[in-house]
Amino acid sequence: MDLKLYYKETCPFCKKVLRFIEKKGIKDVELVDIKADEANEKYLIEKGGMDQVPCLFIDEKPMYESMDIIKFLDEKFQ
Questions:
Q1: For residue range 31-76, what is the model confidence (pLDDT) as tens digits?
Q2: Distance (Å, rounded) from C-alpha 72 to C-alpha 43?
Q3: Which is it for strands 61-64 and 55-58: parallel, antiparallel or unpaired?
Q4: Angle at which helices 12-24 and 66-76 cross, to 10°
Q5: Whole-angstrom Cα distance, residue 46 to residue 43?
Q6: Where does the record place the GST N-terminal domain (predicted)?
Q7: What's 54's domain CATH number?
Q8: pLDDT score, position 56
Q9: How far apart are CA 37 and CA 20, in angstroms?
Q10: What is the residue range of 25's domain?
């Protein structure tokens, strides 16, 4: 399963997801800062349909909303 979390550092909802990932010690999620490279934000908008973060791509399918992402990751990495 390919997992990529698109985020930006200034977003409080992104910070919540990133803290959860760190606390659980999850290493299988690639972190993609949309402000680090213009191409990252472009990909997010093209593939996800909007520029909302956090967005977890699960095998190229977007999942939005921090609590939904946390719930998914918690169940996946128990």
A1: 999 999 999 999 999 999 999 999 999 999 999 999 999 999 999 9
A2: 22
A3: antiparallel
A4: 10
A5: 5
A6: 1-78
A7: 3.40.30.10
A8: 98
A9: 24
A10: 3-77
Report the chain's mean pLDDT, rounded to a whole number.
Answer: 97
Q: Please give the structure tokens belonging to residue 23.
A: 């606390």
Identify the helix (H) or strand (E) that includes residue 65.
Answer: none
CA 32 to chain centre: 7
**What pLDDT is recorded for position 78?**
86
Cβ-in-10-Å burial (0-12, 13-18, 19+) of 78 comes to: exposed
Show the DSSP H helices in the chain as ranges: 12-24, 38-48, 66-76
In the three-class reduction of DSSP (H, G, I as helix; E, B as strand; rest coil), residue 8 is classed as coil
State the total domains in the chain: 1
Residue 35 tokens, joined: 């402000």
